[in-house]
Write a structure and sequence with these properties.
Blueprint (H helix, E strand, L loop, with lengths): L3 E6 L7 H14 L4 E5 L7 H4 L10 H6 L4 H4 L1 E2 L6 E4 L12 H12 L4 E5 L6 H7 L4 E6 L3 H16 L6 E7 L1 H5 L6 H8 L2 E7 L2 H8 L12 H13 L16 H10 L2
Parallel strand pairs: 1-5, 1-6, 2-4, 2-5, 6-7, 7-8
Antiparallel strand pairs: 3-4
Length: about 270
């Protein structure tokens, strides 16, 4: 068995990369896949918090590499989805505590027993980024429709491709149709024209993502997932090879101002 090793990266911090990692991992596990999430963000470990597993972390990837524990001891199994596990990052401030070769060794070992190895990459383009991508065979880039975030994503795509990770796919997060219509936010077409990569998913702005994240409960676990949760579930289906249309989040033309605009435009 050899599972897929996918790095989830962004360039710019704060665009929802770790939230995406947690939700995609949970969505794939809900589909019966065995999934391990590798937190490669040394010093700023957050993936355990988003999954609600922070109180169960005993060992980290560093103890595995030093031989102080076995891999299975460091893996934190999720009780809600038992086919999902987390390999926590150490909270050391030393970004060079692990080398690209060691990360490649870790992800290689994990891919022997898991269907998916999702690596949560730290923001930026320094050593942490080089470590996180070392063992990956595919890459997902997360960005928001903001000029600075898209510019950083463009830089990351170039670095991924120069490192041999061809054909990275894009998740556009926190999309707000009302702002796009008002021309205060870049449209999907604008972003894709700049980045020239394939769109894997479109996640609408949804305050429920913040609420569920603060509770350590990925939004895909909701009994009736809101649009953002459904979008993550659809991305998991696309990763599995299904042909699932990208959800369209249009501005409803039923408000007072919409009627006024329609009246003057003759529609």
């Amino acid at each position: 068995m050899s599972g897929k090793v996918i790095v989830i990266t962004s360039g710019k911090g704060g665009v929802g990369k770790t939230t995406t990692t947690a939700n995609l991992g949970m969505a794939l596990a809900a589909r019966g896949k065995s999934v391990v999430l590798v937190d490669a963000d040394f010093g700023l470990r957050n993936l355990d918090l988003l999954l609600g597993l922070e109180n169960r972390v005993v060992y980290t990837v560093l103890e595995v590499l030093s031989g102080d524990c076995r891999m299975e001891q460091a893996l934190v199994r999720d009780k809600r989805q038992t086919s999902l596990a987390l390999l926590p990052a150490a909270q050391t401030r030393d970004k060079s505590a692990i080398t690209p070769e060691q990360m490649k060794e870790i992800t290689g070992r994990l891919s022997e027993t898991f269907d998916y190895v999702l690596v949560d990459c730290p923001a930026g383009i320094e050593q942490g980024f080089r470590n996180a991508i070392a063992g990956a065979e595919q890459a997902i880039v997360v960005t928001t429709p903001e000029v600075s975030a898209v510019r950083d994503a463009d830089r990351i795509i170039g670095l991924l491709e120069s490192a041999g990770l061809k054909g990275p796919r894009l998740i556009l997060n926190r999309y707000r149709p009302q702002m796009v219509e008002a021309k205060d936010m870049m449209s999907v077409e604008d972003v894709l024209e700049i980045l020239a990569v394939k769109l894997l998913g479109l996640i609408p702005e949804d305050e429920q993502v913040i609420v569920t994240t603060n509770r350590g409960e990925p939004i895909v676990l909701a009994a009736n997932p809101p649009p953002a949760g459904q979008a993550y579930l659809n991305i998991a289906r696309r990763l599995e090879g299904e042909d699932v249309p990208i959800l369209e989040f249009k501005v409803p033309n039923n408000g007072f101002m919409a009627k006024i605009r329609a009246l003057f435009s003759g529609r």
